[in-house]
Amino acid sequence: MKEDPFSDVLALANARSVVSGGFLAGGDWAIRFPPPDRVKFFIAARGACWLSIEGEESIRFSAGETILLTAARGFTLASDPALPALDAVALYGDDGNRIINLGTAEEFFFLGGHVRLDSASGNLLIDNLPPVIHLRAGSVDADAIRWLIDRLAREHHIGLPGSDFAATQLAQLVFLQILRAYLASTDTMTAGRLRAISDPRIAPAIRMMHADPARAWHLTELARACAMSRTVFASYFKSVAGLAPLTYLTQWRMHLAERALRESNAPLSELSEMLGYSSESAFSVAFKRVTGKAPKRYRSAARRAVSRDLVLPRAH
User: Fold this and answer.
1) How far apart (Å, rounded) are the C-alpha atoms in residues 180 and 140?
2) Pair 183, 198: CB distance under 8 Å
3) What's the predicted TM-score (pTM) here?
4) Fewest CB atoms less than 10 Å from the CB: which of 105, 118, 132, 153?
5) C-beta neighbour count of 161 within 10 angstroms
6) Which of 247, 199, 244 lies closest to 226 in space, CA to CA?
7) What range(s) does the HTH araC/xylS-type domain occupy (predicted)?
């Protein structure tokens, strides 16, 4: 199997999706959710309603559609946007992980969840994402997402042994499918890591650097792998990734180093060799230049940190 840089980023970000609750609604109803404290996704499993997100126009949110919300913005779902909305916090109380009933029927079925991301590496995944991603029912990915949504709804309704485990795996795939759909629309993405790893023209070079980050890659061989001249490759890579190819490699090495420093007791000499540096000193200089901290100081601070599993939504 080919090296998959996107899987590398997902693994480094430690992305974990969890379905956290939902509601069934019918008749006249409206519910208001506060700005989330985590990256949020929500699913229309059945029926349709109006969805209003702060800073965005109201949209019709229909069965088979999903939303990824990376911004700290409140949102309202309603049968009619003119209706006064009930407060979700008051309705759910201390138990947000449940399905509640609104209105007089069960015409609309909503499932919500969140994405846990490593506090140190999670921004690798969300920094280039817009505040809202809407995967519509008529998109090219509609069939795949529809199947996942149907399975999620079934797991919540039937409650077979292992339903919680199954729902978590399905939620992970829903999140992945939303990201895949967004990556397929690279023309709308700003320059950055996600755009770079989804660009087919520079994919060979990205795969090579991810497969062997310790190697002393040269611009010429990376350009040759992409069937470009050095000049064209360097210019195009920077226009897509927002940084030069060898700077991309250095930053990727430092992200790997940060994880190793947080999660292992490997000596700096071993990390230096693993990441392609000739000495511990050369590695330390590079690490401090990129991260602003010496490796030992970074490791000590990471060990003292109480929480390292959340990236908060951005206020944009």
Assistant:
1) 11
2) yes
3) 0.82
4) 105
5) 7
6) 199
7) 203-301
